[in-house]
Amino acid sequence: MKILVPVKRVVDYNVKVRVKSDQSGVELAGVKMSINPFDEIAVEEAVRMREAGVATEVVVVSCGASASQETLRSALAMGADRAILAETDVELQPLAVAKLLKAVAEREQPQMVICGKQAIDDDANQTGQMLAALLGWAQATFASRVVVAGDKVNVTREVDGGLETLELKLPALVTADLRLNEPRYATLPNIMKAKKKPLDVVSATELGVDIAPRLRHVHHAEPAARKGGVKVADVAELMSKLRDEAKVI
Ligand code: AMP
Asked: Which domain holds residue 195?
């Protein structure tokens, strides 16, 4: 079984995101970029399946600028077998990514796609769902456990108030939630090995899909600065402030 794992290059989760001075977007110049954390979980799951003999090959794919090759190399260092970059400098929105991934999936014919549940930059939580719809595949989102059995996969999802387990017929698409696994750190020898693994670059134009943005960013703003707190002497003062100043009781 071949597994395709889409990985996105995003602003590192430790970076404090700043809005550009003209409010047209987020400042990316000189900012540390990394593999989207949920995609790391997806790569880990696929690599574990290959190690367990359930999968035979793990192919990672990224859509975006040439710098995404670095992200693909991180996934290769975790154990993916080969990588594909669908390269474009056009700003990609989830529908465009889903269309590019569909074109790659049609070429690669995987039995399973494991996406991250969401990208931590746009928080869209759309790409996996759109891709499954475009491919006409079954989908199970927010997976916390994935078990392949023959031509089916059982996916446990954390839902409000408990766990839900779905049985999907392969080929299927799964999106990885936080508790699916704990991704490994890439070791230095594996980082070195990853440099030699195959990484194909295909231009997005070659994939023949319309990736023009459908949404226009109107405005970006930082959250309002928080006002300092005050210390109250006792419960009576707290109650009076809640009643007379905050007017919440
Ligand atoms: P989103 O819908 O933007 O929250 O992204 C959900 C998931 O789709 C991510 O965790 C990735 O697995 C995949 N994805 C989104 N954008 C890209 C991209 N540019 N390249 C590859 N995979 C992507």
From this structure: 2-244
Q: Is the CB of 116 under 6 A from ligand 1?
A: yes
Residue 220, domain member (yes or no) = yes
Taking CA atoms only, the protein residue closest to ligand 1 atom 14 is 8
DSSP 26: B
Q: Which atom of ligand 1 is nearest to the CA of 63?
A: 20
* CB-CB contact of 104 with 4 (8 Å): yes
The domain total for the chain is 1
Residue 190 Cβ contacting ligand 1 at under 6 Å: no
Q: Over the stretch 76-113, which tens digit does the pLDDT of each residue have?
A: 999 999 999 999 999 999 999 999 999 999 999 999 99
Tell me the pTM: 0.92
For 9, residues 6+ apart whose C-beta sits below 8 A from its C-beta are: 33, 34, 35, 36, 62, 64, 65, 67, 68, 70, 71
Beta carbon of 92 within 6 Å of any ligand 1 atom? yes
